[in-house]
Amino acid sequence: MEDVIVDTPAPLFTAADDGGRLAVTRREWTGLAVLALACLVYSMDLTVLHLAVPQISERLHPTSSQLLWIIDVYGFMVAGLLLTMGTIGDRIGRRRLLMTGAAAFAVVSVIAAFAPSAPILIGCRAILGVAGATLAPSTLSLIFSMFRDPHQRSIAVGVWVGSYSVGGSVGPLAGGIMLEHFWWGSVFLLAVPVMVLLLILAPRVLPEYRDPHAGRLDLISAGLCILGVLLLVFGMKEVAQNGPGPLSVGALVIGAVVGVVFVRRQLTADEPMLDLRLFRLGSFRTALTINMVAIFVAFGYFLFVGQYFQLVLGMSPLRAGIATIPAGLGFMIGSQLGPRIMKVVRPAYMIGVGMTMAAGGLLLLTRITASGGVELTIAASLLVSFGLAPVFGITTELIVGTAPPEQAGAASGLSETGAEFGGALGISILGSISIALYRGQLGNTLPFGLSDADTNNSRDTLGAALQVAGTLPGKLGTSVAEAAKQAFLMGMHLTSAIAAGAALLLALIAMTRLRHVPPG
After folding, report:
1. Whole-number Cα distances in Å, 67 to 342, 351, 516
2. Low-confidence residues in the chain, pLDDT < 50
């Protein structure tokens, strides 16, 4: 069953059919650039706000709970809606869904930039998450529809993966530059010109694709999917932040029950929202697992390096952002080299080498100290990013490429949802371990003479401990700061080692389970 193409604009330039390949015009490559920009902004919005948190706290005076929601609600909404949005795009048209999301993203970004209170900012971030959830599955499924030649599609997917990586890396740098010169809300305005450009160019360079035989959207299944994913992601993040408790355990249990109901409904429905027969395909199942756990491994790096640069080494937000540039370059280079190497090397070996390289970078992070380590951390980030970039591209191709064309949107949504689960697991498992180690270590190393309030605040986070240290006199403040930094590094070392072990396990799984997939 093939997609229907409607409203396809005339080619700007017709390329020759080289060696029997399906011809790709300049319009497709221009369209890819537009899609990459959208993905860059989508991923940048996940990280750009982190450096603005101090100014938001000063200007809007949010409670601690409100501050967490300001940071997290965007990711929650994206995770909950990705699969549903992918399915909607297959039905109403992927370009139409992409443009609708881009328009909403631009308008709400302007409102968020001038939000007068914390509740309004939380609401804006939630709507941005809804809009952001339209971008990822729409862009990926459009790429698979536009690029039919396997080699050209590999390059396009590499660009797509690289744009996400660059967005995540550029976010702190761009945010640091904006915050050096403007108010906290300026970080939201970075998205506006890109989304306006997308709205102008999309009708000209992006064709419309949809499944002509798709039935009506099952609203009950969509609601179950959103509720189940939101509860599971929320529960995992709550465990990471506050440890197991009635709220987090309840969310996880109810989310799991909702997930079971969703699966049973898909198995019995005449026109399921998600065709679970995809999971019978061994390559699909293995690739989805590797992709999800690779995100988990990446959090062994992402969770701690920004804090290490700013809180342990005392770097400014702008300098810390600059220090992340090599990681972004590693992702860019790795994502572009991957498709070229894969022409002659089996995906199993590419993934195995990439995950081994990432494991080496994570093991380097276990050697950094509180007195220095910028160069070692940058070297580690290069290894991690360069190793993971081709893995994300290869597994994404296997996930979406094994699905029927009319289900490309749903498969890409499933790929992105798996990635969100991997990130949530990384935050939950690695974050919980590091927090437990940090608090346990400080219980033994904090100096005597602290009040109960100062002790409790110091054991909360490294940032809180440094704030407490700044209010204490002389050697007492220095002792608190040093003890907190050492406790943070202990947690960072162990979680990096755990992530390295997971990376090596993934390398072994890929080398044994994907050996049958040929090069190219």
Report:
1. 44, 38, 48
2. 1-21
